């Protein structure tokens, strides 16, 4: 134990860097769980859509949405989301599933929605990329 404390004393910068990297790794693996956002895999999303009639909200850009989106998804630009809460309230009991390109933006938006009282707010883990990786269908055009 004496050697360990001597090492830490001699290499304080390296030891603090090691601790920082370890904390970032833990946050990367468990941060989503700790934030309270319910992340769904593509199979879980299809199950929720089919069984509970949940609504998918695509918050990517209009161009990305028209290039391919989940069937029956509603497009709402992420910048307009605050103004569209009334539109989303009709899906409050059924559930809303947010998706973006990779899942990182939708997590933040689901957190905001949960603060507005939405208990059934979910996020597609990995976004549309995970949907495509699972070989699930996309439709093109605008809705």
Describe the model.
The protein has 143 residues and is α/β, with parallel strands linked by helices. It folds into two domains: 2-33; 36-133, Oxidized Rhodanese, domain 1 (3-Layer(aba) Sandwich). It is built from seven helices and five strands. It has helices at residues 2-10, 12-35, 42-52, 62-67, 85-89, 104-115, 127-133; strands spanning 38-40, 55-58, 74-75, 96-99, 121-124. A five-stranded parallel beta sheet has the order 1-5-4-2-3. The longest helix has 24 residues, at 12-35. The chain is elongated and about 65 Å long. It starts with a helix and ends in a 10-residue tail after the last helix. The model has no long low-confidence stretch (mean pLDDT 88).
Core attributes:
143 residues, Oxidized Rhodanese, domain 1, 7 helices, alpha/beta, elongated, 12% strand, 5-stranded parallel sheet
The ordered H/E elements are HHEHEHEHEHEH
CATH architecture of the largest domain: 3-Layer(aba) Sandwich
Radius of gyration in whole Å, from Cα? 20 Å
CATH class of the largest domain: Alpha Beta
Q: Give the helix level as a range of percent.
A: 40-55%
Q: What name does the CATH topology of the largest domain carry?
A: Oxidized Rhodanese, domain 1
Outline the low-pLDDT stretches: none
If helices are DSSP runs of H or I spanning 4 or more residues, what is the number of helices?
Answer: 7
Characterize the largest beta sheet: strand count, sense, and whether it forms a barrel. Answer: 5 strands, parallel
Oligomer: single chain
Count of folded domains: 2
Task: Kindly state the number of beta strands.
Answer: 5
Mean pLDDT: 88
Distance between the termini: 65 Å
By CATH, the superfamily of the largest domain comes out as Rhodanese-like domain
The structure class reads alpha/beta
> How does the overall form come out from the CA principal axes?
elongated
């Amino acid at each position: 134990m004496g050697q360990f404390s001597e090492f830490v004393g001699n290499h304080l910068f390296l030891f603090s860097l090691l601790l920082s990297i370890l904390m970032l790794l833990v946050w990367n693996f468990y941060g989503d769980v700790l934030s309270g956002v319910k992340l769904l895999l593509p199979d879980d999303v299809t199950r929720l859509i089919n069984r509970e009639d949940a609504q998918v909200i695509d918050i990517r850009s209009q161009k990305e949405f028209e290039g391919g989106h989940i069937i029956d998804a509603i497009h709402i630009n992420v910048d307009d989301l605050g103004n569209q809460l009334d539109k989303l309230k009709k899906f409050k009991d059924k559930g809303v599933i947010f998706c973006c390109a990779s899942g990182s933006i939708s997590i933040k938006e689901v957190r905001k929605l949960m603060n507005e009282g939405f208990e059934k707010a979910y996020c597609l883990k990995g976004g549309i990329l995970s949907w495509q990786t699972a070989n699930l269908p996309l439709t093109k055009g605008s809705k």
